[in-house]
Amino acid sequence: MAHFQSFFNGEQELEIFQFIGQNQIMEKLPIWTESCMVRFGAVDKSDSMTLDSIFNFFQEAAISHAESLGVGREAMAQTNQVWLLSRMSVQVDRRPRFGETVTVRTWPRGAEKLFTRRDYDILDADGKAAVRASSSWIIVDISKRRPMRPQSIVDTMPRNDGLDALPAAAVSLGENPSLQKCREHSALYTDVDANGHVNNISYIRWIENAINPELLEQAKQMRLDINYLNEILRNETTGIWVAPIETNPAADETPPPAQAFAFEGRKENQTAFRAELRLW
């Protein structure tokens, strides 16, 4: 779900655990940290960061961290494996603004069954979290197109026990019978990444473009939960379905959101993704 072009120009700061043994120091990188500026292309008419830009920041930080841990794209390809993003939940407590310098952090959180967890946050200049997120990934055998048990990979990575960006792992979403089709997207050149399918950030743009843009521009806070269910290949057409949903808050949401929507992307007889967006 990720492309591997560097997005950040800022200096990278690493929080390092050092393990000292017989005249050797083994460095681990439990948390990956990048300082960067919110640039013009990352904001909307309100001068505040868009959801797709937030996903982009997180994607690039995760890729850099995986490379530093020895489980990046090339290393995984040597064993015929690839990381695929399965679920992601993002809570935007405050939208960073144009020109603001922020700190993007990401760290692995171990595994459960077939899923590995990776958390994220974006800190402001005072060190307060403006955005918090949790994601679930699967490791896929490229030739067999089947998920693999991740334990052998996860055992080589830091666990960061107890360091949760969100109270729970990324949310699993069910079907919504009220959805109505609002538009179609053909997967074009700019949607597809180095893995040969639509990048996870393109899904977020499709979601943003499916509702009234003024709702997004006026939102001070946001919550997006998305499940990536089936890949979309170049030139495949995906219908975008949407419906308003109850604005009941989640366990960590106070007060209830002002607007809430459910989304689904469908190609032929498959559901490609499901998502829920809440706006305050």
Q: How would you portray this structure in words?
A:
The protein is α+β, with helices and mostly antiparallel strands and 280 residues long. The chain folds into two domains: 1-170, Thiol Ester Dehydrase, Chain A; 172-280, Thiol Ester Dehydrase, Chain A. The protein contains five helices and twelve strands. Strands 1, 2, 3, 4, 5, 6, 7, 8, 9, 10, 11 and 12 form a twelve-stranded antiparallel sheet that branches. A hairpin with a 2-residue loop joins strand 4 and strand 5. Helix 1 (51-68) packs antiparallel against helix 4 (200-208). The chain is globular, with a radius of gyration of 19 Å. The protein starts with 11 loop residues before the first strand and ends with a strand. Residues 1-27 have low confidence and may be disordered.
